[in-house]
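Bumping my old thread because nobody answered last time. Still need a sequence for this structure:
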């Protein structure tokens, strides 16, 4: 959650890839079901032990095989011109642009996460040139205990998939907490930035 004071008004920005990005084509954003974070090019089996790390369950910082590698590959369809800044991925990893990383740092998010540089590749393993540099971020420290969620409201999703979502219209930061960015586990956030 990033809040900004404007007189008596507070703005709340949430970063979540949304249900539609998994299946519906959007210009500049790959469909999540067509992407993969990989340890190396050409490896057909799943990612390494790092992908088994569970924030809030395993210790932080992750050690040994649970540590996020410093370099990973982001496999996308070859014809996709990437323009996004934030995209949820599997293994509790988010793909973020360099500009988004700088924004998060300027807002005070300076620890509690791991970062790996990403090389964007096609399904055939060829490097894809992008206008932005991308990184994998895995958030390891959760902040649900700093938020008062209040009552939840079920809302029908507007997508073609007829989903419903839980919203917390009275959600607020607990008294005395001086923080701008929160990483939440509570559904519907599921390890996303808020």
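Sorry it took so long. Here it is:
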């Amino acid at each position: 959650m990033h809040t900004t004071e404007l007189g008596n008004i507070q703005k709340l920005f949430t970063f979540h890839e949304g249900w539609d990005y998994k299946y519906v084509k959007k210009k500049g954003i790959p469909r999540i079901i067509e992407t993969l974070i990989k340890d190396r090019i050409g490896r057909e089996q799943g990612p390494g032990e790092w992908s088994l790390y569970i924030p809030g369950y395993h210790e932080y910082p992750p050690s040994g095989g649970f540590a996020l590698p410093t370099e990973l590959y982001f496999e996308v369809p070859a014809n996709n011109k990437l323009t996004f800044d934030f995209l949820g991925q599997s293994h509790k990893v988010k793909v973020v642009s360099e500009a988004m990383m700088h924004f998060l740092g300027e807002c005070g998010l300076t620890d509690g996460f791991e970062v790996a540089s990403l090389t964007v590749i096609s399904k055939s393993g060829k490097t894809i040139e992008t206008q932005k540099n991308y990184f994998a971020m895995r958030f390891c420290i959760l902040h649900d205990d700093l938020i008062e969620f209040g009552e939840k409201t079920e809302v029908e999703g507007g997508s073609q998939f007829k989903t419903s979502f839980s919203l917390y219209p009275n959600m607020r930061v607990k008294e005395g907490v001086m923080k701008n960015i929160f990483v939440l586990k509570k559904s519907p956030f599921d390890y996303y930035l808020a």
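Residues 1-9 have pLDDT under 50 and may be disordered. Let me know if any region looks off to you.
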